[in-house]
Structures are given as structure tokens and as C-alpha cells.
Amino acid sequence: MSAISQKQATGGCLCGAVRYRILGGLRGVVHCHCSKCRRFHGTFSAYTGTSMENLQFVEDRGLKWFRSVTDETPNVHRGFCAECGSSLFWHPRDQTMIAVSAGSLDEPTGLRVMGHSWVSQKGDFYEIRDDLPRYARGWERSERVS
Ligand SMILES: [Zn+2]
Ligand SMILES: [Zn+2]
Fold this sequence. Notes:
- This protein is mainly beta.
- The chain has a single domain, classed as Metal Binding Protein, Guanine Nucleotide Exchange Factor, Chain A, CATH 2.170.150.
- The protein has one helix at residues 35-41; strands at residues 8-12, 19-23, 29-32, 45-51, 55-59, 63-67, 76-81, 87-92, 97-101, 113-117.
- Strand 7 and strand 8 (87-92) form a beta hairpin.
- The chain is globular and about 40 Å long.
- The termini are far apart.
- Residues 13-15, 17-18, 62, 81, 83-84, 86 line the site of one zinc ion (ZN).
């Protein structure tokens, strides 16, 4: 078993009405610049990811799921706290992987940003100022643009 898969991460929303733990490995962080993430998060998102089976809720009284029908990925549900509004999860219901907002994790996360997805829909009010990989659409599922 690798070191990362032994890690237990914890996190939650701003008010505490959603708390979770993740038993298992976390992917590096991807900034998604799609227009849906921008509306949901206020700007580009910062998502790590794990397998659904690794995610356990310690508190979920605030958890609500919004079916995001305009997402390019089919059957995406976005999870948030209905009490404080924190944006927490992105989950295509027919996939085992769930994206978790890196900002909701308790520190130290041990994570690093590894690149950018959906730069074809990037907001016009900021620039990407690093040299990390950029994908036109989905991470490692579309044309790499730099
Ligand atoms: Zn909350
Ligand atoms: Zn997105």
C-alpha cells in the first residue's frame, strides 16, 4: 500500500453542517475553469478527487445535491451546504470518482495544484499565470493546449 493511500483526510463546510472524512488516496488538485464551476464557486474551482467508496459523512444534515443539467459531463450532481452555501462536491452519478473542493479540506492537505481543465471556458476577468498543463476541456480527456 502506498503512503498516500494510508492517509485519512477530513474536511467540511464553513458552518459544520457537512463534515466528511476520506479514507484513501486523493488526486492532485485541478482548477476547472468551466462556466458551471465559475457560477457554483464564484470563480474557477479547485478540485481534488477520490473514489466514492473512500468518502464517509460524519455530518450531512446540511448536504444538498443540485443536478447540474448544463454540465458537459452527463448526470452531474453538485453538492453544497444548504445552511452556509459552501460548494463541496462534483459527482457524475454513474462514475465512481467524486471531485471534492480542495478548500473544504482540513489542513495540512499535502496536495498541490497539477493543472487546469476547461480553459476554453475560462473567465475573462483573470489570467492563468503558471506553467502547469492546460486542457481545452476535461482533464486528460481533451486537447492539451499548453
Ligand atoms: Zn455549512
Ligand atoms: Zn468545471
